[in-house]
Sequence to fold (697 residues):
Amino acid sequence: MVKGANVGLAALSEDVGSVMVSLGWSSATGEGDADVSVLLLDGAGKVRSDVDFCFYNNPVAGNGSVQLLGKTPTADGSEDRISFDLDAVPEEIDKVVVAASRYGGSRFGELDDLRLTLADSAGDGLVRFAVREADEVSAVIFGELYRRSGEWKFRAVGQGYESGLAGLATDYGVDIDDDAAEEAQEQGEQGPEQEQEYAEGAPPPGAETALPEPVAGGRPAAPARVPAQATGARADHAPAAPVPDGPATPPKPARRPRTAKKKVTLPRTTRKSLADNESWRSARLFPVSALKSDRERETRATSVVLSVMAQVPEFGRRLTAGFGAPAGRMETFTEVTLPHGESPRRPDGVVRVERAGKLWTALVETKTNGNALKPDQVQAYMDIAARRGYEAVITLSNDVALEGSPLVDVRIDGRRKHKVALWHLSWAEVVHQAQMLIRHDGVGNAAHAWLLQELLHYLQHENSGCHGFQNMGAAWVPVRRGIDDETLCQGDARALEVIENWERLVRQVCLRLGGELGQKVLPVQRTRRGSDPSVRRTELADHLCEQGRLNAEIRIEGTPGVLAITADLRTGKLRTSIEVPSAEPGYPLSRVKRLIRRLSEAPADLHIETLVDGRGAGPRGTLERLRPEPADIVPKDGAQITGFRLSLFKGMGSGRGSAETGFIRSVDEAVDRFHAQVVAQVEAPATRRSRSEEPAG
Fold:
């Protein structure tokens, strides 16, 4: 589409009751990012209240009809996905505006390939709109969905705002405190003292608390002011405010809250046990001790996950919104028998969602313990779904799906009028969503949080079979041997298999680490815009044959730089590293000393390498040697220091699986150690606050 054009969705597809909108961009460095926001507008072109302003801290709006699904990596960057259940959008809403904003003085001109894509509930792309001429703006309206004569239409907008998100939101009736916005621009982010106030207790009654504006990385840029009562803070936890003498000051009108009601999360630390000794085991809602066969594991895992999806609305919605499911009443079933020729089929489960008298149905096929999906089974379920008018087939297994590389190839009968979407979930994604809800984002009540905690305990138990990607494949050992004896040639299909499994492993590392931290963790892919994923993987396979190394980068929200992972198959070593910029004023030696002081708790074997302007790498040494002699990594020729590269090395597991000596476990351990002992120490104090530590509300 071109700017200003519009189109009726019903003319493009019959499956537009639910649609998926994706906003994407890329950058040459892989570091550029933006935050998505959605505004639901009434007939006057304004939000009814600030709850119609949907952003990272209020990801669901419009009675669940709009939901932000977060970022997903693509071949040339990342995409932010938004699920719209158009049939459920409140009748008072005439228009839905889709926008994105940048922060900290950044502009959209620093990003490439700004685009919006819209797909129907079957996942088929309907609309693509490339945004041009957004160089000097920090907020952009990509497009809008609007009603016309009872039909939903889409308009390509591409309008930029130099005033940023605050200017955009104000135009549509969202309350922004100008003083607070100016203060935030001057001060950047909240200081350590204010963080401590949030962590230890509520502000005094009547005090105003700053809620963060939605910006990339969850960092505040222009906070709006709301009364402390609106944030859910308890007044009985704060001292009484003194009453001044003289005439009473008229109270300020209460401003509207920006976020939904306070959600329940569970603490990381468990309470002291009442057991007499350690041999006593807590009673579990989902026991795993009786599981002995793969069939029992599949049956139990399916029933456990589907039952919790039906009972915890936030969890069920998160797992199905990306598949085009509407926001409505969900019911789940297991071991359902469906006719299919002479032999009836029994899918592992069925998910049904009802909204306004309409049903959305998905068949579920589950695999555990590393078992592969069977193409003939999935094909049969696709055929059954098409005949019965079901919307989707969902596969759930230990494997991780890759863009452009489907786990199962199925035949689609083009003569059928009804389309069925095939979607895949990995157990790692299920665990990630459960962790995010009970540790960081919260759920509606304590019972739901406990249910998710029991589910998480079950999925992470060694006997459940739900451990995510656990095997580097049959090609792993031959490729390592071929690299050792230099017989592996470019074009070898086994190298491509290793590259694909390496990408799966890196994506799973991102899911696991993101769930633990409550932050966005995504793989960085530095590729040419619009490149084919299969071509990119083929090039990486050729590099593996030539260099004997696997390389990956991941970006962790709030972290300066990207975390690089290198697996050198020739030396059998894993290297985890990060480049820390050095923009601080002062003499070179003073800057080196400040860095070493910040790394006071880091391992002694940490390698520190000075980065020099125009030359790349400079002097280097271990932290153990540099603590008494920091001048050893100061360039002797007076060259300008641009930053430092911090690295840890670890022996690499040789096995293809995730056992104690396996490669997968060694990668997990290397990333965990590096983040906990190095990255966490070099983060700036103002960026170390996670979402769960932001002001309640």
About this structure: The radius of gyration is 26 Å. The first helix runs from residue 164 to 171. Residues 178-260, 685-697 have pLDDT under 50 and may be disordered. Residues 276 and 680 are 37 Å apart (CA to CA).
